[in-house]
Amino acid sequence: MYGYRRKLIVLMVVLVAVAILLAGLPGIYFAQHKAQNDAVTQMRQLTQLASESIENQISETQATSKALEAALRSSFNLQEDFKDPQSLNQFKEKFIPQVSEILHLLRPMSLWIVFDSEKVPGAHTISFVDKNQNGVYSRIKEYDINQKDLQHPTMDWWTNARAKGQTWTDPYYWQKWEMELISYSRAVNIDSVFIGCLGSDIKFPELGSLLDSVHTFATGHLFLLNENREIVYASNDSPGVTLKDREAVENVVKTGNEFAFMEDGSNQWAISTERLSNNWTVAFSVSEEEFFSGVDNLIYTLMIIFALGFSVAVILAISFSNYITNPVQKLLIKFRKATNGDLSVRADIHTKDEMEELGNHFNKMMNALQKNFEELSLTQQKLRREKERAQESDGLKSSFLENLSHEIRTPLMAIVGFSELMADPASSADEREKFFSHIAYNSNQLVRFIEDTLLFSQLEKGQTPVRLSRVNIKQVLWELNEEFENRRKTEKPHLFFRTLSDSCEQSLTSDPSLLKRLIRYLLDNAFKFTDSGGITLLCQKTNHHFQISVSDSGIGISSDKTELVFKKFCKAIETNDRVYDGAGIGLTNARGLALLLEGTIELTSTPGEGTTVTVSFPLHEHEPNAYS
């Protein structure tokens, strides 16, 4: 027995040593590369974070300029508006309201047009600026561009845009506005005639603040380089970065590498770059010492862990070999009984070592086996319940497919039938017009049903696109009021329909089309289930929320079914007196849109009296209560 124990000790020590060599050395190697890759990933993420912040400013500025150019091209007549100073002045006065609308919609820091005074002499500009960026714009006095020193660097926005078509300037101080700017300028040519330049500006200190706000390494520095690969800004003025360091960053950017290591004298740097859409570049540099500090610490830690692990393994091998042989036979007998199906067997080992622990784990295993057998019956019951739920879901889907078939077949048959009637040569003009009206109505019904089904699929998959903008609620409700008033006159003229929106001078940040579609679902549902009385569309504002409610005097539903109406494919109203059209996804889509737009939806109803559905949206502090 003692010889066996010695052999066991030697064997375990050798196995542990070989395992550490085979697993430890590759582990250190791969851990080192993993730590290096993590550091590179962190640098790339920080670089991309800074780039996204700058890119948002660039995109907003370009979008503002493009919107202004589109408005100019749609209303500018080269022959009439650009023939003399008087005609151009008249055009400017007519065009200023469109500029104001763009300012209120997009909220840029500035927006301007400078006309070419070589073609039409005089001071011809339209320039608005919001110096405090509080939504209050002031118009800047007009000036003659040809009276400026066009060779001065502050006029690059004119000369470069005219030469290249568009340009981003380096930071410069604009005396008239008393601020440091980066300008985006676009040359406008109509019928090959140069009209002038338009564009917008960004406060350069704000870009610097965005870069300074990105948390970097202790030795990390963020740089912004122009399209010539020259540094125009370094975060926090980068006091620890020398001229050679700046040259190293510029050289890496010029090579086009996204990540590189550079050395200049005693300094070694890891440099990450990210190209912006306007051909500028954001660069991030970190000293190699800090970059690799995590790798070195990881290697030291792993070596200590491996050494301690080997020592502990040797001690455990000796202890284990001294005690393993005596209780092993006893434990083996217990295993044989358990193998024969006796789940009540338990080990009784008190060696105060690993064998006792093994005996305890054996007991735990047997307890777990008994528990598993007991839980098996419960699991079978759960499976049966899940099967019933699945069958219920299949029933709902089958019902939905039947409704789907009906909702598609009915308008299609109407379209085909009225198309054949229109093809009849004996049909009069009035009859054909009436047939065409029916075809158009059923086509619209079919298109709306398909759109609802596609929206339901997008909401289920979480793939519904959201395009946020400022939305005037009163305008949305007015459009829906006009739409459903026409529907009331046509389908149910005996009903009343009113919209209470006098106090709804509220604007929200939302998707206007999805918001209108959400309210339309509620109105559709109200019109469907209301045959007498009327429907009310109401908007109101609380201290923290903005609410839109649709109330009807329809058939209503019981309180125990109010939650069912929001479930997919489910129709809470079943009656033999009347069949209501629909696939059972209208209110499901409504709830999905409400949640997608960060709102909530609630339904209250009384059978025989009517239903009220309320959608609430939170009012954020940064959102104004009305259009300025």
From TrEMBL:
- Residues annotated as coiled-coil are 366-393
User: Which PROSITE patterns is this protein grouped with?
Assistant: HAMP, HIS_KIN
Write out the entry's keywords from A to Z: Coiled coil, Kinase, Membrane, Phosphoprotein, Transferase, Transmembrane, Transmembrane helix, Two-component regulatory system
> Which reaction is the catalytic activity of this chain?
ATP + protein L-histidine = ADP + protein N-phospho-L-histidine
State the EC number(s).
Answer: 2.7.13.3
Enzyme's top EC category:
transferase
Which coarse location class applies to the principal site listed for this UniProt protein? membrane
- Where is the protein found, in the record's own terms? Membrane
The Histidine kinase domain extends over 403-621
UniProt key word Protein biosynthesis: no
Q: Which GO terms describe its molecular function?
A: phosphorelay sensor kinase activity
Which InterPro entries does the UniProt record give?
HAMP_dom, HATPase_C_sf, HATPase_dom, His_kinase_dom, HisK_dim/P_dom, HisK_dim/P_sf, Sensor_HK_Regulatory, Sig_transdc_His_kin-like_C
Tell me the Gene3D superfamilies matching this sequence.
1.10.287.130, 6.10.340.10, Histidine kinase-like ATPase, C-terminal domain, PAS domain
- Occurrences of domain HAMP (ranges): 322-374
The record ties this protein, via Pfam families, to:
HAMP (PF00672), HATPase_c (PF02518), HisKA (PF00512), MCP-like_PDC_1 (PF22673)
Indicate the transmembrane segments per the record.
9-31, 298-324
Q: Which domain of life is it from?
A: Bacteria
GO cellular component terms? membrane
Query: Which PANTHER family does this chain map to?
Result: HISTIDINE KINASE 1, TWO-COMPONENT HISTIDINE KINASE
Question: What is this protein called in UniProt?
Answer: histidine kinase
Organism of provenance: Marinilabilia rubra
